[in-house]
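Exercise: predict the structure of this protein bound to zinc ion.
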Amino acid sequence: MDWNGVASTDVFKRDAHIHLQEYSHQQLDLAIKRAMARGIERFDCCGTMPSDWNRVSNLAMQYKDMVFPYFGIHPWYISEHDVDVENVFEFLVSMLGKIPYAGVGEIGLDYKAGNFDYQKFIFSQQLELAKEYGRPVAVHTVGMVNELYEHLVQYKGCFPELLIHSPSMSYEMAEKFLKLGAIFSFNIFVLNEEYVRMRELAARIPPESLRFETDSPRRIFSGYEVPELNGLIGPELLPEVHKEVLAIRRRYAARGVLS
Ligand SMILES: [Zn+2]
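Solution:
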């Protein structure tokens, strides 16, 4: 298959951002089996809050060499009242110590989550740990891309991988992140023609900086639910994301249009 310049086929075997810990035990087994049947071999499984880190860690042990764990506090789950900073960061360090290849994520900034100074503080602390331990970072951003850049510009070359998941920003802004070595990971939002900025990014990001994900099991818009997974989405959808991104890139390369 012509992947329009996307270099390594390994990229297509990797769901670069997923929350396997959010499936029940039964669903999980099925979700992984169905994805494997479609050629997916690697799952980058992102924790979102201290209470799910143990499950993420257990999954990494259970599915060794398939599930790559990340531990972090997602901006949605940051509240000054319930983050006991000292204990949480001690716990994070212990998780990173336990699994030497674990990354830091899902962390980031989100304008919908409010509490901005505290969000930035928690984000910075987690970036510092990732730098100290030399770990990959999985970033979430909704809006706040300038603030995100201000944080990340200090860390050029500090992480083995800096992945920005489900990116929505201008291409000009994305170029600044690319200069920091960031890679961009697209999910089924890209199938929705209303997400014009995301589709433009998917069309223009250099092939070596392009990754794919499903962000399963989060049902981000309807029409892609898997009945066998009780209506959640699953990593088996990854090839649909590949196909759409490829189609967008072909059209864009040939005619300079997205659809
Ligand atoms: Zn996520």
